[in-house]
Specification:
By secondary structure, the chain is mainly beta. The protein has two helices and 23 strands. The strands form two sheets. Strands 1, 2, 3, 4, 5, 6, 7, 8, 9, 10, 11, 12 and 13 form a 13-stranded antiparallel sheet that branches. Strand 18 (about 315-320) and strand 19 form a beta hairpin. The chain is globular. It starts with 7 loop residues before the first helix and ends in a 13-residue tail after the last strand.
Length: about 400
């Protein structure tokens, strides 16, 4: 993995962080320390929702009464948490871009760390992924940073809402965090975007409980802003673009979500031009079956929601793309239909290669949508994430 655009002071800090990871000797730290040596397998993203090292952490059992901005912030009693921003943007003359900025938190022990004299003391590990897709040039570039949640290098707060790693951040611009500023710069690409939610937060599942298997506690709390008009700038090398568009925000936390048979998942976030949104995920099992508790949500123009079960949605791959880097064979076009949700959609990536070649390889990218919604023709845009489709090729990760 390359560390782009880092100063000598920053590199010294990262060396110290890496040494501290080794000293901690915990499973969560091991994943990220090992990524400096050789890239792990693509399926290790699944380990983020496994039961490894989870003793003492809270489990997602019952419904939760969400309170904001409190629940936009960190939940340190749970082992794993992420804040996911994705979006489709364009310039005034129509040049298209997709972006992803995601912050992950992994707890070593539950709760707030016991006070110690050293500012380096922590029980939290943070890492982040940043990617830009440039449709005109048929390119997708990704970058990654990680740090300990100590010495001001990384962290998350609820009021005011903020999550950051070094100079990458998501920062609230109002009291309820429905408006945020995103900043990321790896030296070769950068974003500075303002996002404003046009609908209230969507709580997925029953009381925010997004169940993944029948086993008690195999679940996460899951909240989204499903439509966030966006404006700002992005930069690729020396070219800067003023852009507008729409973003999607997912915030999910829990301890053990996936079952032992899980091989990976497919996640869809769709924004239709009739002002409806769709989120749906399906968990693929090692035996080829689809987990029965795969589920999703339809969001209506007024913000009302409808739960979709596994049996309410049919996802049919219609084309495939094989990565020369990871050898993963990914679906590259889908028909997604639902009588309960009243839609019939064809979803196509804006470019085929939007593979995230970071510490663990997965596919995450911008898509175009067309079909019908409530019996009328519709178009839209969105994002798709796919994990567990192949082994990562060994070698350098770079532009």
């Amino acid at each position: 993995m390359s560390l782009y655009g880092a100063s000598s002071d920053t590199n010294v800090k990262r060396v110290l962080i890496a040494l501290a990871f080794v000293a901690l000797g915990v499973v969560g730290a091991f994943f990220y320390w090992r990524s400096l040596q050789t890239p792990p397998l693509a399926t290790e993203i699944v380990a983020l929702q496994s039961s490894q090292g989870s003793d003492g952490f809270a489990r997602v059992i019952g419904a939760r009464e969400m309170q904001f901005p409190r629940d936009h912030g960190p939940h340190l009693d749970y082992q794993t948490e992420w804040w996911y921003y994705t979006g489709n943007l364009q310039t005034e003359d129509g040049r298209r871009f997709g972006y992803q900025l995601t912050f992950f938190r992994r707890g070593i022990t539950p709760g707030t760390p016991v006070h110690r004299a050293s500012e380096w003391a922590t029980n939290q590990i943070y890492f982040a992924h940043f990617a830009l897709t440039d449709v005109a040039s048929n390119t997708h570039n990704a970058s990654e940073i990680f740090s300990r949640g100590a010495a001001g290098l990384a962290g998350a707060t609820a009021d005011p809402f903020r999550v950051w790693i070094e100079n990458w951040s998501a920062t609230s611009m109002n009291a309820d965090a429905s408006k945020v500023n995103l900043i990321a710069d790896d030296g070769k690409m950068a974003i500075d975007l303002n996002l404003t939610a046009s609908k209230p937060p969507v709580v997925h599942g029953a009381g925010g409980v997004s169940r993944k298997t029948e086993t008690s506690g195999n679940a996460s709390y899951y909240v989204s802003f499903t439509r966030m008009p966006t404006e700002g700038t992005l930069r690729i090398n020396d070219d800067e673009f003023r852009v507008t568009g729409n973003s999607w925000f997912d915030h999910e936390w829990g301890t053990t979500s996936l079952g032992e048979n899980a091989a990976g998942w497919d996640w869809f976030s769709i924004q239709l031009d009739d002002n409806r949104e769709l989120m749906f995920f399906q968990i693929r099992n090692k035996d080829g079956s689809i987990e029965l508790l795969s589920s999703g949500t339809v969001v209506e123009p007024d913000g009302a929601t409808r739960f979709l079960s596994r049996n309410d949605v049919t996802i049919t791959p219609q084309a495939y793309w094989t990565s020369s880097y990871s050898q993963g064979k990914y679906p590259s076009k889908w028909r997604v239909t639902s009588a309960a949700g009243d839609f019939d959609l064809t979803i196509t990536p804006v470019i085929a290669d939007q593979e995230m070649r970071v510490s663990f390889v997965y596919w995450e990218g911008a898509v175009d949508v067309q079909g019908t919604s409530q019996g009328k023709p519709v178009r839209g845009r969105g994002f798709v994430e796919m994990t567990g489709y192949g082994l990562q090729a060994r070698g350098d990760v770079g532009y």
